[in-house]
Amino acid sequence: MRIVCTITEMKEIISEQKKHGKSIGFVPTMGYLHEGHLSLVEEAKKHDEFIVISIFVNPLQFGPNEDFERYPRDIERDEKLAKAAGVDVIFYPNIKEMYPNDLTCSVRVQKGVNILCGKSRPGHFDGVATVVMKLFHIVSPMRAYFGMKDAQQVAVIENMIADFNLNVQLMKCQTLRENDGLAKSSRNVYLTPEERRQAPEIYSSLLNAKNKINSGEKNIATLKVEIAEHLTTKTNGIVDYVEILAYPSLEKMDHCEGVMIIAIALKFSQARLIDNMTVTI
Asked: Is the C-alpha dihedral spanning 129, 130, 135, 140 positive or negative?
């Protein structure tokens, strides 16, 4: 396995691999790898012959009061995990390599961003889309693998691929969870012991809502109130949002129908956790 820090070298490696007829699978990450990331690598290995992951904490997607400086970083740890998982290349650029000058152009996401995480993080998905667009051009993968834990991000990337006719197949992978149901996330390390004990209630509230929908409940307002009450009663966290939307359009609905996403964001003292579940009726 190689660690590559420059765009030029990364492109050269990809060009060489494609000359030999190898398909490129790509897993974009911000590092501090966990089983969720590694499950994406495992899925990529089922379909592609040469696996690239990127590790880049992208400043464009962090707001002024967010945790860019505190975001966990440990390249030595990540290198060991990636090598054991069978990754061929880690693309590990620094900020100057990715953004050598002030950007003259960037991607602006116009739909599906003023809700869920985008509502409280203006400009976040512009930053996500811009860096992913750059990474797609640098790595030029056949397939790119994203976890459905960040379902809004997946929808944004899916729409960007369609809008710009990008020659990459988006592979949507299911959320990987701890044994108690908590979605795996790099931010889980910020939870206090008591918050970690409470955090699985996010998943429990999703399951409860899904069961009620499957049992015939169609009133979205009622379901949202019940989810919020569950989280408020069972945890010390502050509910950022509870939404039930059509998926993947992320449009609001009057009542439950078709394919929906139940999405939650809960703020603890030092971590904001998100989770979601899709339901079809």
From this structure: positive
Give CA–CA dist 26/142, Å, rounded: 8
Closest CA to 58 of 146, 117, 123: 123
Residue of 37, 124, 137, 230 marked active site: 37
Domain boundaries, given as residue ranges, for the chain = 2-173, 186-276
Q: What value does the mean pLDDT take over residues 141-167?
A: 94
- Architecture per CATH, domain 186-276, reads as 2-Layer Sandwich (3.30)
Residues 24-43 have pLDDT tens digits of 999 999 999 988 899 999 99
- Is 37 one of the catalytic residues? yes
Pair 26, 170: CB distance under 8 Å: no
Annotated binding-site positions: 30-37, 61, 147-150, 153, 176, 184-187
Give the CATH number of domain 2-173. 3.40.50.620
Candidates 18, 130, 117, 121; CA nearest to 65 is: 121
Q: What is the pLDDT of residues 224-272, one digit of tens each?
A: 999 999 999 999 999 999 999 998 888 899 899 999 999 999 999 999 9
